[in-house]
Amino acid sequence: MIDQGRAFAPVYERIYPPGEPTARFCAARHPGGGHPSLELGAGTGRVALPLAGHVGEVIAVELAPEMVEQLRAAPKPSQGEVSPVEADMTTYEPDRTFGLVLCVCSTIGLVHDRGVQQRLVATWARALAPGGALVIENHNPAAIEELHEGRTRQTAIFPYPQPNRSLLTHGVLDRDNELWTATHVFFDQGTPWTATEVVRLTGPDRVDAYAKQAGLECVERYADVEGSPFTGNEPMFVSVYQHA
Length: 244
Ligand SMILES: C[S@@+](CC[C@H](N)C(=O)[O-])C[C@H]1O[C@@H](n2cnc3c(N)ncnc32)[C@H](O)[C@@H]1O
Fold this sequence. Notes:
Its EC number is 2.1.-.-. Residues 38-132 form the Methyltransferase domain. By secondary structure, the protein is an alpha/beta fold. It is 27% helix and 35% strand. The mean pLDDT is 94.
């Protein structure tokens, strides 16, 4: 994977919207009973921090030291607690059980190896407490295909409601290997930032197959954390899994 920490940390919280809606969505799937929650690829705590306010303790696993540093420096939630763990989620072995395990904001696609993706979902399934839920949010490959309009290379601009802020993305789609290389240029008040990420295209059906193999079933799926229906072409999908 690319060094997302160095590339994205300075602009991260301006590129992505606040994490409270995702935190609320996840918190509503926590079974209660005082179980902690586990976020893999927690970044700056955009979601983990508000989630802790809803459900108590959140273990936040993050690879990039720059992201962990920002998370440690962030104001503490008024309730609950976030415990940052600087670790690679592909080798991180949870030693507790969790009411909620989440891997959101297209983080599973940053793991390129299908075997490792499968193993991760199995690890997360084993870490669920009774009644616990696994929440996975990812890019929808069908929407990336649509964005490319049949081309290998495509450039798109995503405006923001804030003045003088927009994201210019140049994508290269490797259909044979199901890889999407996206170079982003983020313009904000005249200060551009640029970063490249490579994602392994991982759609809802594929995650369902990993989950099934791990003894989980998909109990809910939406196009976003507001609960909009997923019909197949929306940019993102959010799936919720529980033990079958
Ligand atoms: C798109 S960001 C999402 C961050 C956070 N989940 C959110 O919603 O704001 C993906 C994060 O996953 C981290 N990451 C990527 N690969 C990782 C790995 N193998 N182990 C742990 N973290 C990883 C990146 O450094 C980055 O902070």
